[in-house]
Request: fold
Amino acid sequence: MTAQKGKDLLLKVDADTTGVFTTVAGIRSRKLAFNLATVDITSSESAGQWRELLAGGGGKSAAVSGSGIFKNAASDAIVRTHVFNGTVAPWQIVIPSFGTVQGPFQIHSFDLTGKHDGEITFDIALESAGEITFTPA
Reply:
């Protein structure tokens, strides 16, 4: 895989659950993290008393965060609606030349920031709320 432009990683939402995903905003920095909880099965019989973990035993989750500026009033309204209603919606994270992560997410946090001599920017964080799928590019 060759180097990729960070700006090409897209955050999209299916705002009305029709299967049509819309790019939310001009996201300037982003992060996608997958987490797997561990289940410790260490016992007095564990070799050398080293910790042992149960393969596939813990819960899985994904988290997405980013910051940027809104593309337009429509994308602003989509995010605002999900923030105030606390809804779980289908989201996509498109990673060029790698694949697409898709599944239900809920907005975990949302911050707006503005300077007197600049644009309004936002920070957003989403947490998975169900099964996540990955489709290779």
Summary: Strands lie at 10-13, 22-23, 25-36, 60-70, 88-95, 99-114, 120-128, 133-136. DSSP finds one helix and eight strands in the chain. The chain has one domain: 6-136. Residues 90 and 104 are 4 Å apart (CA to CA).
